[in-house]
Amino acid sequence: MKQYKPYTIYIGASQIVITVSEPIEGSAILEVDDMLSVSRAKVVKKVETDKLITILTPDAHETFCRIREQFVVVEAAGGVVLNGAGELLMIRLRDRWDMPKGHIEEGESDSMAALREVEEETGIVGEIVGNEPLATTWHAYDTYGRWELKRTRWWQMRAIGGEPKAQTEEGVTAVRWCNNAEVVECLKNTYETIKQVVAALRGK
Fold first, then answer.
1. % the chain with pLDDT above 70
2. What is the mean pLDDT of residues 91-98?
3. 161-178, pLDDT tens digit by residue?
4. Nearest Cα residue to 111 out of 77, 84, 66
């Protein structure tokens, strides 16, 4: 059975949407006629000139898998943490607003990794809300000639302890609780993946 769910991959500031439906308005289009023709090289080349790309395909899942297998997949997890006032925990990392996240260590589940990263990067102790990740993001990048595709599973949490403290040795320069208006301001200087996660939170 074919999978019709769209997939989104970010490369830098560019968004690639893999879908069977109509292309996103204003996007550049790559059409897939033959699954063997799906290549990372074509996608990366298109990113050089376009910020929004639609890959039109008869099978979004198969096309996504074909592209994914051409990358080294890196597993990560992050926390979407709210306090009792409904404020969202955000960090300042490399001069942009972000949320705590990091690589999954051996023997960890993604939810365990998310809890650990939140506490390490922010000083806040969290508790998982729900049985499934709030969102999953895919972000591709070239590390010295090695193309990696990072899958980050984002878990919603409630804060149950700790005090905000930035993990400066990992480049975190600020930790803050943000109300709705402050989140809007933070989203003006953040990553596209973070915007996707916040949209998932607001869509609940």
1. 97
2. 96
3. 999 999 999 999 999 999
4. 77
Number of neighbours of residue 84 by Cβ within 10 angstroms = 8
pTM > 0.85: yes or no: yes
Sorted by where each starts, the structural domains of the chain and their CATH numbers stand as 7-68 (no CATH), 76-202 (3.90.79.10)
| The two three-digit tokens of residue 128, written as one number | 């998982």
**AA identity, residue 42:** K
Residue among 128, 146, 137 at smallest CA distance from 82: 128
85 touches 155 (CB < 8 A): no
**How far apart are alpha carbons 165 and 147 in whole angstroms?**
33
Strand partners, 52: 15
Strand partners, 174: 92
